[in-house]
Amino acid sequence: MKKMILFLFVGYSLGISAQKMHKDFVYLKDVDASIQTELRYFSNQNFIGKPIDGYQKDCVIVTKQTAEALQKIQAILKKEGLSLKVFDAYRPQQAVNHFVRWAKVLNDTLMKSEYYPKVQKSQLFQLGFIASKSGHTRGSTVDITLVNIKTGKEVDMGSAYDFFGEESHPFYKKITKKQKKNRLFLRKIMLENGFSPYDNEWWHFTLKNEPFPDTYFNFPIE
Known about the structure:
Blueprint: H1 2-18, E1 25-27, H2 28-31, E2 36-37, E3 61-63, H3 64-78, E4 82-88, H4 93-104, H5 112-115, E5 141-148, H6 177-192, E6 195-198, E7 201-207
Parallel strand pairs: 2-4
Antiparallel strand pairs: 1-3, 4-5, 5-7, 6-7
């Protein structure tokens, strides 16, 4: 019986590692290399404080339709002296599982002061910051901001990317008029070009007509 369980486990593990990128997904740089990227989950600069499972290479992957929509937005932004910057896009299910495991270890608060200073880690599920399923895993959701091309600096949105708190809600009121204007500008251009926003995060958008609305992929980013 033990041998049978071991065989099944090894077989399952090999199946996960053998998964390849779906044919309808692309590397964003191959569609528009001018779009800036900073894949936070490939690094230590994230709310866990170490690279996340499934992020094996510093590259952004999305569905073809999403890449084409972002390319269109980038062309509009360039005329304004701006560029998109992508923090995360396709996210394998193994990464989501990593988030869930981490959230259950309540004494692991290495990055609390930077990412969730006002929120108890035990509340992350209840408040919707951590979940067992993510739209990112379907390949048509992106976490983005804007960059001033001339200065190379990110546009001030009033809170950091991946900050767990009400400050990240798109219509949070306790920020400056300029920060509100920047958030609304990003939201407006994404809405006008086929994306839907997320109520809890100013940076999070999903392609409205996403090609895989019910499929959660698990091939690694490589």
